[in-house]
Amino acid sequence: MASKPLGPNDADTDEENVQDEYIDPEDVLEIDEEDGADYPMDDEDELEDGEGAAGPSGENDILEDTSIRSFTNHASSVFAVAVHPSAQIAASGGEDDLGYIWDYSTGEVLVKLTGHTDSVSNVGFSYDGEMIATGGMDGKVRVWKRVGQQDFKRWTFLTELQGPDEVMWLRWHPKGNVLLAGSNDTTVWLWNLPSGNTMQVFASHASSVACGEFTPDGKRILTADTDGTLILWDPRSPTPLWKLTSDDGRFDLDGITSLAVNPASTVAVVGGASGGIRIVNLAKGDIVGSLAVHDEGESVEAIAFVGFAGTAEVVVTGSTDGKACVWDLNTLKIRNELKHGDSVTCLVPLPAPKSHMVISGSADRVLRTWDTRTGALVKEHQGHRGPVLGAAVGHEGGFVLSAGDDGACLVFAAE
Fold first, then answer.
1. Span of the secretion signal (predicted)?
2. Which residues face 261 on adjacent strands?
3. CB neighbours (10 Å) of residue 362?
4. 0.70 exceeded by the pTM?
C-alpha cells in the first residue's frame, strides 16, 4: 500500500492559459467527477550478491558493469524513466507503486512520489520542467510542481487527475501545460494544468489505447489501439478528423503496438503486433507506404525518427525479433540493421547535433548507442541483470538513463 501524498496541495491552482495557440482553456469540458516491453522478474530469478543473471540463452553469465551511477531505491521492476529538460534530474516509476525524482549526477533522492495503489508505469516532465506527472495501473494520474525558481530539489504535490481505469501512456504537450493520457478502457484524456480541469475526452476507440502522441507542432493528437485503429484528432474536438482501421486490408497490423510522428508533423510511422509497418500521410489519413523486414509475427515495440543532413527522412523501428532497422522513407529501403540478442524494447534518439545517433534498449539487458548513418556501434552500455524496459537521454545527449526489470536505473555516458 502506498503512503500518503507528499506535502499539501498548496500550489496555485488558478486557471492558467495554455502556452500554445492551438489549445484554448475556454475549450474545457465540464464533466462529473502486455505486451513485449513488460518482463516481470519472478522470485526465483532474484540474484544473490556476486551471482550472474541468466542470459538470453538461459545460462548464468556476468556482464561488465559500464554504468557511471546507479539508482536502486525501487523495490522491484522499474517501468519508466524520464529526464528534466534542463537540469540533471530524473524521474522513475516502478512496480512498487512508487515514483522518485532523483539527481542523476549524484544518485541522491530528491522526492518520493507516493499516492499510487498499483504500479507506476509512466512518468514525464512538462515541456518547461516545472511539473512532473506519474501514471499508474490504478488509473491515477498524479502531478507535482517545482517549488521556487532556482531550486530543482524541492517539489510539492499539486493534484490528482482521474478518468482512466489504467494508464497506458502519458504525453505532455510540446509547448504548453497540457497533459494527454491513453487508457485501457478505450478512452483518451486531455487535462489543463495546473488547474487539473478536463479539456477533452476522446472516446472513438473500441479497445485499449496502446500508444499516442502529440504531433511535434502541437496542433494534432494521434492515437492507436490494440484492435488496429489509428485516429487523428483536433485537441478541441471529440470527433476524429480521420480514422484508419483494420477493415482496410492494407492497414491490418494485427493490433497497433507503436507509432511515431516526423518532426514536420506530416507523416506517421505505425508498427503492429504481427511485424508490419505502415507509413501514413497525416493530412489525409492516406497509407503511403509499407515497410517489411522484421520477422513475421514479431511485434514492433518502438519507433523513432532520427536526424540526417540533407533531405533524407529516416526512421528506426525496433522489434521483438531483436532487430532495430534504419529506414529511408524517401526510398522505402532499409539502410542498416542494428542487432540485439533479444527483443528491442525502446529507442531514443540523441538531440542535435548528435541526432543521427539512437539508443536502443533490449531484453538482452544491454543498451547500445548507434550511428544510424553507417550502422556502426558507437558504445555498448552494460550493467543490468534483467531486461531493459525503458530509456531516456539527458544533459544535451551526454548521458543515457535506463529503467530495468532488475529494479535498477543506471546512468551511462552516451558515447
1. none
2. 268
3. 25
4. yes
